[in-house]
Amino acid sequence: MKSNLTYILETLNGDEQVKLSKEEKRAFMEAVKNFSAMGESVYGKGNLQELTERVRDIVEKAQSIALQDEGWFDKLTVNRHMKGLNESYKVFESTAKEMSQLQQRLSAAYEDIAEGLRKYYDVG
Fold first, then answer.
1. Cα(120)–Cα(123) distance, rounded to whole angstroms?
2. Which of 21, 66, 97, 109 has the fewest CB atoms within 10 Å, counting from its CB?
3. What pLDDT does residue 5 have?
């Protein structure tokens, strides 16, 4: 009898065909029919560029208000905090840009998978 690890390695390497039960096949066909529903997660529901602009607007207004109200805050402390706030925003903006690029790459790969599946199955 083969060990589980040997069986897994052979399966991954294609040395042995995996036999699926009728129930596994039915579950697979159902998953393929619902493949497009996974697109919501892949494509993302929010617009990162819009979110970044909204956060930038909040940061700018926070800085403007805090600096206008002399006497309400210590100016030196406010400047130090605003500098940190701006640095955090730069990291946020850069990360959102990277995420947007990765989201596009993920979407393209997802569409390629769907196209491949459509050649053989009814993809919903």
1. 9
2. 21
3. 52
Q: Are 122 and 35 in contact (CB under 8 A)?
A: no
For range 5-17, the mean pLDDT: 57
DSSP 7: H
| Token output for 44 | 């993302």
At 123, phi and psi to the nearest 5? Answer: -90, 125
The two tokens of residue 40 are 């919501």
Q: State both tokens at 63.
A: 């800085």
CA distances from 22 to 6, 19, 25, 28 (A): 25, 10, 5, 10
- Joined together, the tokens standing for residue 102 give 């990765």
Residues 46-73 have a mean pLDDT of 80
What lies within 8 Å, CB to CB, of 32 at 6+ separation is: 117, 121, 122, 123, 124
Q: Say how many Å lie between the first and final Cα of the chain, rounded.
A: 40
Structural domain spans, the chain: 34-118
